[in-house]
């Protein structure tokens, strides 16, 4: 029954993402190893994050920029095709450690600027966001850097980060279905997590106006790093 701790955890991490626009998926996925089988981590994470991001986008629908959707979907489909091939060849024993290392890199190493004109950066974003996401699950910080180059207003960034991540997780879910993953086997847990993340999105959207960013990002990085190290350690000492 320990896996059902993921329901309140999903609510809290979704609320965090509702406030800051990202960061909910990373702590959630770092806590999933050991609670669900390794092969189920990324598919279940994709399903719950689809619900989290889609609900967050709907709660802030006035800020949705529809011009982002088509180029991201084009790149995302191509990225999912490549990521699915690589996922089937991975040794899942090492998957939590791989995710932990990548999360540490994303958290502490400055992301390179994506140069280009028009919507090409969004097509590239869709490709690597979805392709890498098939392998490591939580990739929200990667895309946030690209959107921040287009618009820095907080509500725009929070809502449109949710829009492109919804597309990302929807494509990943479809890819895992085509690969034969049985979401129904985790129906009760998944239903509880979906309810949790939708409630968390509502709570985070309401809290966003009250919570100053301040020193949160430093503490957030430290917490995420500790959770990522936990993922790596569990592989070698489980």
Summarize this structure as a short list of keywords or feature phrases.
238 residues, mainly alpha
Task: Give the overall average pLDDT.
Answer: 77
Structural class: mainly alpha
The shape, in one word, is: globular
Range of strand content: under 5%
The major beta sheet can be summarized as: none
Number of domains: 1
Q: In terms of per-residue confidence, which ranges show pLDDT below 50 for 5 or more consecutive residues?
A: none
Radius of gyration: 16 Å
Tally of individual helices: 10
Percent helix:
over 70%
Distance between the termini: 19 Å
Number of strands: 0
In sequence order, what are the helices and strands, one letter per element? HHHHHHHHHH
Describe the structure.
- With 238 residues, the protein is an all-alpha fold.
- It has one domain (2-237).
- Helices cover 72% and strands 0% of the residues.
- The chain is built from ten helices and no strands.
- It has helices spanning 6-20, 25-31, 38-59, 69-87, 95-108, 120-136, 140-148, 154-178, 187-207, 216-237.
- Helix 1 runs antiparallel to helix 2 and helix 4 (69-87) packs parallel to helix 6 (120-136).
- The longest helix has 25 residues, at 154-178.
- 44% of the residues are buried.
- The mean pLDDT is 77.
